[in-house]
Specification:
The chain is an alpha+beta fold. It has helices at 9-44, 74-79, 84-96, 98-101, 113-125, 196-202, 219-222, 245-259, 267-277, 284-288; strands spanning 106-112, 128-136, 150-162, 188-195, 210-215, 224-231. 39% of the residues lie in helices and 17% in strands. The two termini are 29 Å apart.
């Protein structure tokens, strides 16, 4: 099976690998540059005693993901008992208040830990896929007998995994160095959705239209993973986004469709497995039949 413009599934996966390596290289260079600047500052001000700045709940690892504590006041949440349902309600209310109270440009959900573990285990093995979105055909063009009345837009899906966050605390002490012991939380993950044509053209420089982040900070304490979706805004157009809210929601549902496997081999599971293990048997026609899952 080959994609348009002659790019095969194997070539797409190789491009995804290069994109991941390029992003890792950029993050490494950014860390090295930041360390060099910090060292220079320390040398300049070494004779002036200063107190460390308080950064309550800030991440001390190399993860590029915005810390959950910059979105949700985890210390305050943990200072009093909250059930998973209550935390989920706070999470939803916060995102619904964005964009002038419309919630546009954002998605959110609270995911039970057991479901997240199932999906992330599949994603570790099969981190990329292609997701179709149904589009109406141009009515000005005469229909061709035997062709569908719909067109499709394809998005390249790519999972990435980042350092597991340490356990949050209600009594964060900014002057105490975090424990170096391994976190009991699972890894944080991101899922990028990029238009397939743009991805094939620009690879590592392609702009994702939707980024989903699975925050696992409260996984061990509350059995909960907080999902946040951010739609890329259009440059110079306030309040306008690269995707409609409906399209963003449908793309996010693809995670369940293809990565939440049941006991038997469902259609989504079969397609994802074939895409990676037998790309020569992967059929676009089979994929297009999945474009009508409900929102």
């Amino acid at each position: 099976m080959s994609c348009r413009k002659g790019m095969s599934v194997g070539q797409l996966k190789e491009q995804a690998k290069l994109r991941k390596e390029e992003e890792a290289r950029r993050r490494r260079e950014e860390r090295e540059a930041a360390l060099a600047v910090q060292k220079q500052k320390e040398e300049v001000s070494s004779d002036e005693p200063t107190l460390p700045k308080a950064q309550v709940g800030s991440r001390k690892d190399s993860s590029p993901v915005k810390p959950l504590s910059t979105i949700l006041n985890t210390s305050r949440v943990l200072s009093t008992p909250h059930t998973p349902d209550q935390i989920g309600q706070l999470w939803n209310a916060y995102h619904m208040s964005r964009s002038g109270g419309t919630g546009r440009g954002f998605l959110c959900a609270s995911v039970p830990l057991d479901l997240y573990k199932k999906m992330s285990a599949v994603a570790e093995k099969y981190p990329t896929f292609i997701v179709p979105i149904r589009r109406p055909k141009d009515t000005t063009v005469s229909p061709v007998e035997g062709e569908s009345d719909s067109a499709y837009e394809f998005y390249f899906l790519q999972w990435d995994f980042h350092d597991a966050p340490r356990l949050p605390s209600a009594n964060e002490d900014p002057f105490v160095k975090p424990s170096s012991s391994e976190s009991p939380n699972p890894k944080v993950s991101t899922v990028l959705f990029t238009p397939l044509e743009e991805y094939k053209l620009r690879a590592t420089f392609a702009t994702p239209y939707l980024v989903l982040t699975n925050y696992t900070d409260l996984a061990s304490t509350h059995g909960l993973v907080l999902l946040r979706g951010e739609v890329t805004p259009r440059s110079g157009a306030s309040g306008n986004y690269m995707l409609s809210q409906e399209d963003a929601q449908q793309l996010s549902m693809a995670i369940q469709k293809f990565y939440l496997w049941g006991n038997g081999e469902g259609e989504g599971e079969k397609l994802l497995r074939t895409f990676h293990e037998k790309p020569e048997d992967f059929r676009w026609e089979d994929l297009l039949r999945t474009a009508d899952w409900g929102i």
